[in-house]
Design brief:
It is globular, with a radius of gyration of 15 Å. Helix 3 packs across helix 5. By secondary structure, it is an alpha/beta fold. Strands 1-5-4-9-3-10 form a six-stranded mixed sheet. A two-stranded antiparallel ribbon has the order 2-6. It is built from five helices and ten strands; from the N terminus they run E-E-E-H-H-E-E-E-E-E-E-H-E-H-H. Strand 7 and strand 8 form a beta hairpin.
Length: 180
């Protein structure tokens, strides 16, 4: 895996999200934020996540969508249950994935982070291929950016967010990053 000079992952499906903008001047990517998402909640494989990140969510397609249809959110990457990687925002741009957040005393984590969504929930184990693809993607990002910390959404928005949740195996993931 390789990130090209435009901030795109070579070989990934790119679906542009309008829910992004320029990073503030002087903001360098230093933080990787791991998330989990399923839409509708607890269901995998449908178009809901893509529709949410591209502001095309049909509020009548599911009762839960009425609550979230107006959200303007995105992520840089989504890793599906089968390992497919979809990119929504170039890495050099700011995706709107972290919301109200802080890390090590710095507010607005979107300014200096890359967000990776895993298709999943807090209470269902992630697939082997998701860990493998996440580790590959992390290594590619580390080759291009000075990533100093890798955290969960719950770490930068405690009390507000719980993802990637207790089923995410941090030890396994960190071992795969190193190639152990």
């Amino acid at each position: 895996m390789r990130i090209d000079r435009r901030g795109l992952l070579e070989g990934a499906c790119f679906i542009a999200s309008r829910n992004s903008d320029e990073r503030p001047p002087g903001s360098e990517v230093e933080l990787l934020v791991i998330h989990s998402i399923s839409l509708p909640p607890g269901e995998f494989g449908g178009p809901g996540i893509i529709d949410l990140f591209t502001s095309k969510l049909d509020r009548d397609a599911h009762s839960y969508y009425r609550e979230i249809a107006g959200l303007k959110v995105s992520s840089h990457f989504l890793i599906r249950r089968d390992g497919e990687i979809i990119q929504f925002v170039a890495c050099d741009q700011r995706a709107w994935h972290a919301g109200e957040s802080s890390w090590r005393g710095r507010e607005r984590c979107n300014d200096f982070s890359i967000g990776i969504e895993l298709e999943g929930t807090d209470d269902v184990p992630f697939e082997d291929v998701q860990y493998e693809r996440l580790a590959e993607l992390t290594r590619a990002l580390n080759a291009n950016y000075q990533i100093t910390d890798i955290v969960g959404h719950s770490d930068i928005a405690p009390g507000r967010k719980t993802d990637p949740g207790p089923c995410f195996d941090w030890v396994r993931y960190r071992s795969l990053i190193k190639g152990d």
